[in-house]
Amino acid sequence: MTVSSKMNSVSRQSVLSRLGPGGLFYAANKILAVVGKDEERWRSKNEGALFKRWKRATSVEAKAPAAAPTPAPAQPSDLLKFLAINALELSAPASDALLKSRSSEWFQLSGHPGSLAPAGPGTVWKRRAAGDHPAHNPERDAYEALAACPHMRSAIPRYYRELEYGGENFIELQDLLHGFRDPYVMDVKMGTRTFLEEEVSNARARHDLYEKMVRLDPNAPTEAEHAARAVTKLRYMQFREHCSSSAEQGFRIEAVKVPGQPPLTDLQKVREPEKLTATIAHFLGNDERVRLAITTRLREIRSMFEKSEFFRQHEIVGSSIFIIYDNERVGAWLIDFGKTRRVPDDIKITHREPWQQGNHEEGFLYGLDRLINTIEKAKLPEAAEPDVSR
Question: Where are the annotated coiled coils located (predicted)?
């Protein structure tokens, strides 16, 4: 991943000293100048589907994509910064300045504020979920297994390693936004069930969950629940799924970011099919090439998912599909595996059947089918903005 193994400590120090104070942080923020080289770390012959490239045409009739633009020659100072970053021992912790930065839009849209930190050019650190034991890290285990799976490794961010810093455990992943310029971004939570079966195994009715339910919808509790002023965890979680499009459509839009506008992060209650379609149309902007590239990529992911032995043996709860595009490329990846669990050997799941306690179905492929269909239908009215009000 780095050239550090080829450089001794004297040469590393020489490069860093020439950058001067603060050079590491500056170099990390400027490394996009040589993005072409950095991308090669995770692009290979078998991962050609990672990015779909095109050159936007002035008319929809233009069909053939042009070759990717050639990056401008890097100046010596850019090369120096690039070498300085790659000369760092990645087994050492990132600088405090990098770890404290939260400027990347991916961190805001991914739904995990405070759990992600930039680690260097093209990578991020993701904190282990609270409550996970060091010997039981489902997200790490999922990424390691998927990275070794020939059907799935190009459908996820590149996984690098697990590490400890400041008494906390992280995994290091590819920064999916790295190399995109002023991108459009959409985070879609997948599945009809986004909670684990073990989370709702306790049948005790709780007053705090009743109060939460009433705040969201005073008419949601039954007469018996109103009388008891309590609901079970299962009842509350299923109520929450029905507040969004998850229960009916198998997916919900967590957030959308388009250039020049603030992120839309309060979309969880957009559940009517026409409003979902309008929100996606707003994201696509009626760009037919983008629509075709995204649907093609999502069909690839669906095909890889269906061929994967890992997904035949695991329930994929609370995972997302992260979609990005700019003027030259489009990408889509599966992210978030903190709630991925292996199912019992005697259980066979389809990822499409309705969930019942004990069958471990989560509706991931059911939702992916409908997400693809919704993107295919999404189209903005001429000279009109979508109505995504709730």
Answer: none
**Number of Cβ within a 10 Å radius of residue 89:** 12
Residue 156, domain member (yes or no): no
Average pLDDT for residues 22-26, to the nearest whole number? Answer: 29
* Average pLDDT rounded to a whole number, residues 231-258: 93
In the predicted structure, residue 312 carries a pLDDT above the cut 90: yes
User: Integer distance in angstroms from the first to the last C-alpha of the chain?
Assistant: 46
pTM of the model: 0.70
Arithmetic mean of pLDDT, 16-37? 30
Is 12 part of a structural domain of the chain?
no
59-73, 94-108, 252-266, 346-360, range with greatest mean pLDDT: 346-360
Examine residue 232 and state whether it is found in any structural domain, yes or no: yes
Number of domains in the chain: 1
What domain range is 235 assigned to? 198-244
Confirm whether 260 is domain-assigned.
Answer: no
